[in-house]
Amino acid sequence: MKKKTIWDLNRVSVDEFRQSKKIPLTVVLDNVRSLNNIGSIFRTSDAFAVERILLCGITATPPSPEIHKTALGAEDSVRWSYFENTADAVEMLKKEGYTVCALEQVDGSVSLEAFEADSDGRYAFIAGNEVDGVDQNVVDMCDVSLEIPQVGTKHSLNVAVSTALTIWHFFLKLR
Q: How distant, in Å, are the alpha carbons of 5, 34, 45, 174 from that of 49?
């Protein structure tokens, strides 16, 4: 097996990516504090053609050298908007017809692998702060809560990792 070069991968330009078809998925970051996590989420969103990211509360916004360090330019290819209050972003998404999901461990959550996204639907999911998760008031506004099943000794995943797993799940269902 020969490793592929950057030219073998036939990557599209930023302009071509912006014009390309996206999966009907919006990622909402609720007070994510690590700029490396934010950059990683941008990069994953680019890889799987997420339509946009909504950055809320204390979540930092581009341009930022720390975000760029992990995003590697995806902060330029993926559309994003900033909301001072996550609840305002959720209200907008509901008006736009999205099913809004909290990525959170709550009573009555749906296991991610059991969640069947409708291929004609539009979805948004909210990933929360590294310590406190998604704010309870925001969870209360959501249509459903999704939980990633875990069997180890830890009961949570890094926000960039859990976001990547969730994006991948939606990518498989919606592309």
A: 22, 22, 6, 11
- pTM, rounded to two decimals: 0.96
Please list the pLDDT of the chain residue by residue as tens digits (175 residues): 999 998 899 999 999 999 999 999 999 999 999 999 999 999 999 999 999 999 999 999 999 999 999 999 999 999 999 999 999 999 999 999 999 999 999 999 999 999 999 999 999 999 999 999 999 999 999 999 999 999 999 999 999 999 999 999 999 999 9
For the chain, helix (H) and strand (E) counts, in that order, are 7, 7
In three-state form (DSSP H/G/I as H, E/B as E, the rest C), the secondary structure along 121-155 is CCEEEEEEECCCECCHHHHHHCCEEEECCCCCCCC
**Would you tell me how many other CB atoms lie within 10 Å of the CB of residue 17?**
16
Query: What is the H or E stretch that residue 99 is in?
Result: strand 99-103
Give the number of other Cβ atoms within 10 Å of residue 68's Cβ: 17
Residue 77 burial (CB count, 10 A): 20
* Bridging pattern class, strands 110-111 and 80-83: unpaired
